[in-house]
Every structure is written in C-alpha cells, then in structure tokens.
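Protein: Histidine biosynthesis bifunctional protein HisIE
Species: Campylobacter mucosalis CCUG 21559
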Amino acid sequence: MVKIDWQKVAGLIPAIAVDSVTGEVLMLGYMNEEALNLSIKTGYAHYFSRTKNRIWQKGEQSGHTQKILSIKLDCDNDTLLLKVEQKGVACHTGQKSCFFTEIFNPNEAKTTDEISKPNYDVLDELYHVVLDRKLNANPENSYVASLFKKGENAILKKVGEEASELIMAVKDATNTKQNLEKAKSDVVYESADLFFHAVVALAYLNIHPEQVLNELKRRFGLSGIAEKNSRNAK
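Structure follows.
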C-alpha cells in the first residue's frame, strides 16, 4: 500500500473533491492523518480546518455532506483526489462549487446566480464575510475594507471605542429608572458592535473566532484564579 509522506506535506495533504457524476471540481480542502482515517472509516469526507484548527466533517452544520466513492493519491504522493456524491452544495457561499469566480479576464469576472445558502454558524459566516471584504472589497464603498486599508491602529481604535460604548450602555441600564427594556436593547446593540469589531481584529491576523470559543471551552471547570496562574507560569 502506498503511504503518504506526512513529513513532506507538513502534516496536511491537499484534498481535491470532484463530483462523481459531472466530474466538476467542487472544492480544495486539507486533511491531516486523522481526518483521512476518519474519511476512510466513515465513508464521508472529513477535513482539517486551518482557520478553526480542528477536524470537521463536510456538512456537519449545513447537512451538505460528501459521500466518498473513491480516494486516489497522485504520482508525487502529496495530493489526494476524492470522487464524491455531493449532497446539496459544496461551497459555504451557497454555490455548487467553490470555484465560481473567473479571474483570467478581470473585466469579465462573473459569478453564477445566487442560490439559497446552507445554514452556517453566524460567527463563521461573519468571519468569511469580513475576510472577503479584506481581500476583495473597495475601501471607498466598504467600511470593513476601509478599516483594513487604514491598518492595525484604526482597527484597534474601533475595538476600544466599541468597548467604551458597551461600558456606558451597561452603566445606563444599571442606573435607569425608566425604560429598562430599551436600556437592555442598547446593551445588546453595543455588544454586537463590539463582537463585530473583535472579529475584524481577529481577521486582521487570520484567526477564526472558533479558536476563541475553543479557548473558552477549555476553561470550563477551571477556576479563574487557576487559569490566570497557569498563564503567569508560562
């Protein structure tokens, strides 16, 4: 049996998924050894997310799974080709394939018609929208793109401003003697602003929000004092 040289591919081997009926290239993902073993064991495609830093099954949230019919290894033993039965669509944007933007002639670049999107976690969706604005949007008509153009200090300044506005909203809600529900609504609004700009800051460093959630999960069952001491000991 041909073995993959995991050291050669730095632990992550590119995996190209193609539609078993049409032969269309659906997506390019990466697998570590565990993801490949899970794919073989279950018969469904599993990948390693470099942004979320974890293994995920294709369609685990959207239901748009990939049933594997075959896996082939290329002649250099460093790329996989998966022939799959794609349920639903392959791309998180709602397109059938991730390869839908033509860039050979930028003046004629086009995308296929939008179809209903799969159901992804709101933070994951927001992160990908922010990344898209970071890479592709015009700073003259995109607020997020304008922040990235201005750079780190502008992004961090907005995080600080939104944190201050949340503090004031909480203080107002605590001290109000009139419309408490309105005050609470303001807290929610300001919290959303802070979350949004925190995601922009994370995207500046290409850190997926799920890594933050994983850190919070790690702290479950650990006292705040013990967690702080563990950081000081490093």
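Remarks: The first strand starts at residue 13 and ends at 19.
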